[in-house]
Amino acid sequence: MYAGFWDQIKNAFNQSGNSLYKILAINLLVYFILLVSWVFLSLAGQEALYNAMRSYLMMPAAPEYFITQPWTIFTYMFTHDRFFHILFNMLFLYWFGLLVMEYLGSRKLANLYILGGITGGLFYMVVYNIAPLFSDHVDRSLMLGASAGVYAIVVAAATLSPNTSFRLLLLGNVKIKYIAIFYVLVAFANSAGSNAGGELAHLGGAALGYIYVVQLRNGRDLGIPVQVVGQFFEKLFSRKSKVKVTYRKKSYEYKSEPLSKSRAGEMTSQEEIDRILDKIAEKGYDSLSKDEKRKLFEFSNKA
């Protein structure tokens, strides 16, 4: 299991349809880079330089600071600086992300994570600027972490399949709807505490996760703008295969062979699988035709 997981992480950007592992890989890579930077800069007596560098990745609460570094609405959700922070975020992202991918597909999982992070970041900024409790330290408040995106995925998974159970240490089998409710209540209870920024982002992400699935069932995908931008960058950075042309004295006639049924099954596109998964999310598995069920079965076996 662990070998397979790390193989997926190492090859995340060499494969399509695996946004879960791409998100995990980016979070782990940024954490490792920050960790190495912190060690070397601290040893050199330049910890202030490290803090300044890290702040350019963190989401500021003050709008005037955010305007000068708007990229932080994206970078903060891939940034961690504490081991247990990233550990628990990545565990929950992996466990619940697998379920979301099973129901909605790879692209919609990425949509959920990004939209949850953006919603959490904006909710954090708005509440910090309107709540009197935070008025004295808005200017120096910064936030980092994947929690908002992770909460979006946790709540989305619980909305999609509330009665699915996870086996928890000491508690046994627990339905994921109760896990999601518990974590949302904890975030709400701590939203006025020492980590208020992070907890507010949790609530924003959780709300987005629920709304996203409800709207998807009503036939509206809130993640289409994110998906369009993601596809643009995929095409921009995709590697074009290099074709080596050689010349030989002999010439050969190329004849195309008709595809066999098995090869035709392999040609099922990710877009078609996403369409089938959308139909499951909207109408249930029983609504699929025999051909759609066959394609989904063949694709899952191939994956």
From TrEMBL:
Which residue spans adopt a coiled-coil conformation according to this UniProt entry?
Answer: none
Checking Pfam families in the record gives: DUF6576 (PF20216), Rhomboid (PF01694)
Per UniProt, what is the membrane topology?
Multi-pass membrane protein
Which GO terms of the cellular component aspect does the record hold?
membrane
Q: Which InterPro entries match?
A: DUF6576, Peptidase_S54_rhomboid_dom, Rhomboid-like_sf, Rhomboid_protease_S54
Transmembrane stretches, start-end: 20-44, 83-105, 112-130, 142-161, 168-189
| Subcellular compartments | Membrane
Which keywords has UniProt assigned to this entry?
A: Hydrolase, Membrane, Protease, Transmembrane, Transmembrane helix
Could you name the domain of life of the organism this protein comes from?
A: Bacteria
Q: What is its main location?
A: membrane
**What positions does the domain DUF6576 occupy?**
268-302
User: Per its record, what are the GO molecular function terms?
Assistant: serine-type endopeptidase activity
Please list the residue ranges annotated as the Peptidase S54 rhomboid domain.
69-215
Among the GO biological process terms of this entry, one is:
proteolysis
Which PANTHER family is this protein grouped with? PRESENILIN-ASSOCIATED RHOMBOID-LIKE PROTEIN, MITOCHONDRIAL, RHOMBOID PROTEASE
Family assignment from sequence similarity:
Belongs to the peptidase S54 family.
Q: What is this protein called?
A: Rhomboid family intramembrane serine protease
The protein's organism comes out as Litoribacter ruber
